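Notes from hallway chat w/ T.B., transcribed later so I don't forget. T.B. wanted the structure written out for a chain they're using in a teaching module, and asked if we could keep both sequence and structure tokens in one place. Agreed to drop them here.
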Amino acid sequence: MLFAAAFAVACRTGPVPAAASPTEPATDRSGDETDQTIAAIVSAAKSAASRPPQAQLAETRDANGKANRQGTDSFAEDCRRIRQLVPAWDEGTGATLRFLQESTGKRVSLIFVDATAPHYKPEASLWMIQATAKDSAGKTIGHLVLLLRSLKPGHMHGDEQTQDAVLGVLVGTERWDGRNPETSWSINSGSYCDVVLRDAGGGNLDGEIRGKLVDNRGSGFINVESGYFYINR
């Protein structure tokens, strides 16, 4: 089971993607690396199993009240927890992504938290959410960067040419690096993301996200089958 620390302050270091991809992709983009992403998530969670737990969100449980095991698909429950908890924060964003391995149908979900309000990047004319995922011992095991052209309800699309929405994901490392060969971006060739923003009341927003993200090597990709986030600002 994976957790995100409710008040983990997201690191705001590392490059913000410009109009071009962080690195020039290679021509071979046939490798579905979602299974490697899933393996990295599960491995990171298992490595922390023997360490004392620290502050975390409420435990994930299935419909029968049984605690979910590490690395399982807890997307529906993660969405419920985010809707329940994030509106009570002073500010911040809670997000969950469900990764899909197409060849096996394997799915795993991971929660990301940014404990600050979206930050406007004037050089890119985009609002930035930079969130981290943590295991139950408080170790960072994943990163999510979401950049949005607007914080108004509506649909935004992002790909190599259109950057009204930009999604970047890096899993299995404690430090964020947008130029890491294993970082996957919606702005790399062959990638895309779609974001829907809704009015959640009280000046807050929630939304859905999905996409296919090619890594900076251009040789692999991950599938974000579905995602949910809540922005408290």
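Follow-up for T.B.: The first helix runs from residue 34 to 47. Might be a good example for the class.
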